[in-house]
Design brief:
heterotrimer; A alpha/beta (404); B mainly alpha (317); C mainly alpha (293); A: 404 residues; alpha/beta; Rossmann fold; 2 domains; five-stranded parallel beta sheet; four-stranded parallel beta sheet; 14 helices; 18% strand; B: 317 residues; mainly alpha; 13 helices; globular
Chain lengths: 404, 317, 293
């Protein structure tokens, strides 16, 4: 008892000293946020320039709201979905430009690479775009936050809902690389756990343009549901071609990772009725609408969940820097983990020990063309998946940081 | 003509000496990681140039050597815990072996056929790297430790790493330089200029070409293995056919068949990519394309080639 | 009924899909073969020109209200005209040099075209609707064939064989072939050979654009749609025998079928089977299946 009290006192004293010397603790009196994203490739529509814009908005809003004594700057770069470019750029940012946090990082491979560099150099990584669960499992670090979604949450939302509604036999169309495989693995587990059956899967090259033959195999399997364990252009192509071959609507498609930008690009005619899991929908409530309309005015497109999550994560980070009075990675991370997230993006979100930010996810169904009343009116929100159920429970985590 | 050649021959050691000194002090003035990248790609382009510039063979599959050596080195160092110098050696040997296979298959054809076959073979390597679990597929081979050179010198220090890369580059460059200026190099040039004549002179043309190909592949592999250590990862980018195109661009821009051209070309392209990536985004591809077109149309001698021509003209006057 | 443990319906449908893809290979490799035959240039920008064909159709539909059928003619004309400009201003300067410079120049052009469209239209692809007349499908028993895909096969093969006929059986084609063999002689006969060459390049490129329009409703119209395809088509041309018209058509279709089979038995290899075949063919017949050694 005695020692505990003492240490609490020591902590309090240390904290007091820290806050006293607040601004002196921020290197160069500048907090620098780096946005490393896909500006020109397969994922540039769902992250890309929109994610950079979201970061700018977050910084502007933070300065207006908090009037910090330190400066906040942003740098951005195109990682072209390549792990090598991402890791080189991050290294350069950390070594030469004093960047405090590398953010966004769509595409798992780039995220994993940058996390390692950041850990080595004692900087923070905030990931909104990438999806694979290893980020907060086998490869987790104590300075990284996986913010918006992951393959477990997607499977747990979409695959579960579809299976429970009678879609109990599945065939997977999987992009043949780590992310697609993770998505297939997580989804298969959910399907089986809910009493469904996986009849088979076919792995297609990444990226692919012609899916007809893979779709025909899916058709031959007789499965009720064809699960699309891929993303971006691969998903949109597969959906389009399924309609052409008369596979839909006889068999239903489940897009395991769909963004509103994909729906926008395909049109409601070919996506209507599909279920998808999302961490954010612009038309959810007044708060989301207010922010999204500001975003829309500048970007001419509604935000994807990655872009909205990017804003939220940067804002959370900057507030934590101010509260901690330092840009020291470990201290800011402690502050971020100690503070719940409450904004338009997440309600009562929090960051777990493994770096997973947990928040409510939404199961959405794409509207029929005649149900869409105004531009970007695309989703019915069918279900809210509470934060605690949406993500992989800590008890199953393989992250060494999780104390069991 | 002879006079001029000897003038070049006399100037060369001075130029190399100066460059060597610059190389020694450079990491204190310029960002070391950038320099290491330039040196790795410089060696890659020099190795490529040995084949195209001196033997007249356009390989459109050199990425396969750069990349596979990088993966082999990464696996040796990361998964088997070997020291970095053994990793580089292993990568080089792997690339040489692969080069031999490519060479045997492709060497019978020339010109465009040769380019197409090497391209197809490198696509197969790409496929294997993508499919094989040990390579990490799309994620690449991540988290390769730089380790301790000879088990002693800690390479996680950027300056130490730089000097290793610099040493590797110098050795590789020296090998290429000697090869070009040896009887072997003369025979390659003879084959490039007039293959039937080389045959009639009794040379086993296929053997010489194959040797050049294996040497080029091996050194490209050295570059790839070293690059993996610098950046601590090997990725699909290094085996993709775009990389094969990029090395052509570097060599062409710097000066085909010149000794220093590929290094200059690599330095230019790497700096352009580094500088432009932030400011112009997707226009990088366009700018690369424009450079390509300009080089081919107006500037076929490349930077170093044009400079040499300029000096020669001045010498004549 | 099963063949090697695969339901025959699946096998049949995969072969049909292979035929459809083969039609695209055929028409693209035909264009490459023609250009190579007369200009001795490997047109690396062929994939980019195919992509631009699709984009011209898309832009025409969305900005100018030009429908599919007109675009089928309009896009090849636009891209063909662009090809004429490229030939007149750039390629012309390279004929005296090594063939490799032509390959490198067109590689650079491909980068430029793809970069520009990528900057303008992003990457995730624009959709192009199937023309009303060709919507829907027919049930063939073993599969549901979208009418549009059937139309692709018919249209592509018609154009391929018409081209073959013009080159092999008409006077114009005779000039073309003679121009390949002996330009001076043909020039002496009073034929404008440079013009013939310009026209040929324009025509080869127009074929690529035509394939692009055909592809627009099948695939997403995206800036990189040609970049991966072109490597496969190269392999097709090499296998068929560089410059052989009929060789490129037949090889294109044949490889489409083989790719279809691979997708049944070992899907992961479907991206690479073409290259394996190419290596084997070159080892056995270095000049390609239909090439003159």
């Amino acid at each position: 008892m005695q020692t505990k009290k003492l240490s609490t006192l020591a902590c309090a004293a240390a904290f007091a000293m820290l806050s006293g010397a607040a601004n002196a603790q921020i290197s160069g009196n500048t907090v620098k946020v780096g946005v490393l994203t896909d500006m020109s490739g397969t994922y540039s529509d769902l992250a890309g320039a929109g994610a950079v814009l979201a970061t700018q908005m977050a910084i502007e809003d933070f300065i207006a709201e908090a009037k910090p004594a330190f400066k906040v700057e942003m740098v951005s770069a195109d990682h072209q979905n390549k792990a090598d470019i991402a890791s080189n750029k991050a290294r350069e940012w950390f070594e030469r430009e004093g960047v405090d946090a590398a953010t966004e990082l769509v595409t798992t491979s780039t995220a994993l690479a940058v996390m390692k560099v950041a850990k080595e150099m004692n900087r923070i990584t905030l990931m909104s775009g990438p999806g694979s669960t290893p980020i907060t499992n086998e490869q987790c670090t104590d300075l990284a936050v996986h913010y918006t979604y992951d393959t477990y949450a997607l499977a747990n939302g979409t695959a579960k809902a579809v299976t429970q509604q009678g879609g109990d036999t599945w065939f997977f169309l999987t992009a043949d690389y780590a992310f697609g495989q993770a998505l297939e693995r997580d989804s298969s587990a959910v399907v089986t756990a809910n009493g469904g059956k996986v009849l088979g899967s076919v792995r297609h090259p990444f990226p692919a343009s012609d899916f007809s033959s893979f779709l025909l195999q899916a058709q031959a399997s007789g499965a009720k549901i064809i699960g699309l364990a891929n993303a971006g252009a691969d998903t949109t192509n597969a959906i389009k071609q399924a309609a052409e071959f008369g596979i839909t609507p006889k068999q239903a498609l489940a897009g395991l990772l769909m963004f509103i930008s994909d729906v926008h690009s395909l049109g409601l005619q070919s996506t209507q009725g599909m279920y998808l899991t999302t961490g954010f929908y612009w038309d959810l409530n007044d708060e989301t609408r207010a922010w999204s309309k500001r975003f829309f005015e500048k970007h001419k497109r509604m935000p994807t969940m990655v872009q909205a999550g990017q804003y939220s994560s940067v804002m959370h980070y900057l507030r934590a820097v101010k509260a901690a009075g330092t840009d020291d990675a470990a201290k800011v991370m402690a502050q971020m983990k100690a503070t719940p997230i409450n904004d338009f993006f997440a309600k009562n979100g929090r960051i777990r020990d493994d770096g997973r930010m947990i928040h409510d996810m939404y199961l959405a169904q794409v509207k029929k063309p005649e149900e869409s009343k105004y531009p970007w009116d695309y989703y019915h929100i069918r279900q809210t998946i509470p934060a605690d159920e949406a993500f992989l429970p800590l008890s199953q985590s393989k992250c060494p940081l999780v104390k069991k | 003509m002879n006079n001029k050649d000897s003038m070049f021959a006399r100037a060369m050691p001075i130029l190399f000496g100066a460059l060597f000194l610059i190389g020694l002090v450079a990491p204190f003035a310029v960002y070391p990681t950038f320099l290491m990248k330039v040196l790795c790609f410089g060696l890659f382009a020099c190795a490529f140039n040995l084949l195209l510039g001196f033997a007249g063979l356009l390989s459109f599959g050199h990425a396969a050597f750069l990349g596979s050596a990088g993966y082999v080195c990464g696996m040796l160092v990361r998964d088997l815990g070997l020291t970095p110098e053994l990793g580089i050696l292993g990568g080089t040997l792997a690339a040489a072996a692969l080069g031999w296979v490519f060479g045997v298959l492709a060497i019978r054809r020339t010109g465009i056929y040769f380019a197409m076959i090497t391209l197809a073979l490198s696509q197969m390597v790409y496929f294997i790297v993508l499919q094989w679990k040990a390579t990490g597929g799309e994620d690449g081979l991540q988290g390769v430790p730089r380790g301790h050179l000879f088990g002693v010198i800690d390479l996680s220090n950027n300056i130490a790493m730089y000097y290793l890369v610099f040493a590797v580059f110098c050795i590789g460059f020296f090998i290429i330089y000697r090869a070009i200026n040896s009887p072997f190099g003369q025979i390659l040039k003879a084959i490039r200029e007039n293959e039937p004549r080389a045959v009639s002179l009794g040379y086993d043309v296929a053997k010489f070409k194959l040797l050049a190909f294996v040497l080029s592949a091996a050194l490209a592999g050295t570059a790839g293995a070293t690059k993996t250590l610098v950046f601590q990862l090997a990725s699909l980018t290094d085996v993709h056919w775009h990389m094969s195109g990029e090395v052509v661009l570097m060599t062409l821009l710097g000066g085909l068949g010149t000794v220093l051209g590929p290094l200059v070309g690599a330095a230019t392209i790497v700096s352009l990519q580094t500088e432009l990536a932030d400011s112009v985004g997707s226009w990088v591809t366009v700018i690369m394309g424009v450079i390509f077109v300009i080089c081919v149309l107006l500037f076929r001698r490349g930077i170093v080639g044009e400079l040499q021509a300029l000096i020669q003209r001045a010498g004549i006057r | 009924m099963e063949i090697f443990g695969v339901p025959s319906a699946l096998l049949g449908s995969q072969l049909l899909v292979g035929l459809i893809n083969g039609s695209f290979y055929a028409i693209l490799s035909l264009g490459l073969a023609i250009i190579f035959g007369l200009l001795n240039i490997i047109n690396f920008s062929h994939g980019a020109q195919y992509m631009m064909g699709a984009f011209v159709a898309w832009i025409a539909l969305n900005k100018l209200g030009i429908n599919y059928w007109v675009a089928l003619l309009f896009a090849p004309l636009v891209i063909g005209a662009l090809g004429v400009v490229i030939e007149r201003t750039m390629l012309r300067k390279l004929y005296k040099l090594d063939h490799l410079y032509g390959l490198l120049l067109t590689f650079g052009l491909a980068l430029i075209f793809e970069g520009i469209f990528r900057d303008q239209y992003g990457i995730s692809g624009q959709s192009y609707p199937v023309p009303e007349l060709l919507q829907g499908g027919v049930n063939l028993g073993f599969m549901f064939l979208p009418i549009y895909r059937g139309w692709v096969v018919v249209a592509a093969l018609t154009v391929c064989f018409a081209t073959w006929f013009i080159i092999e059986k008409t006077k114009l084609g005779a000039y073309l072939r003679a121009g390949t063999e002996n330009p001076q002689m043909v020039q002496a006969l009073g034929i404008n050979v440079p013009l013939l060459i310009t026209f040929t390049y324009g025509f080869g490129v127009a074929l690529a654009a035509f394939a692009g329009v055909l592809a627009a409703p099948v695939y997403q119209v995206s800036p990189l749609m040609g970049s991966n395809l072109i490597i496969v088509v190269f392999a097709v041309v090499v296998i068929g025998g560089m410059g052989s018209i009929m060789g490129s058509i037949l090889t294109g279709i044949g490889l489409g079928l083989i790719e279809g089979l691979t997708r049944v038995f070992y899907p992961e290899a479907s991206a690479v089977v073409v290259f394996v075949i190419m290596v084997i063919v070159l080892l056995v017949r270095p000049a390609g299946l239909f090439g003159k050694a």
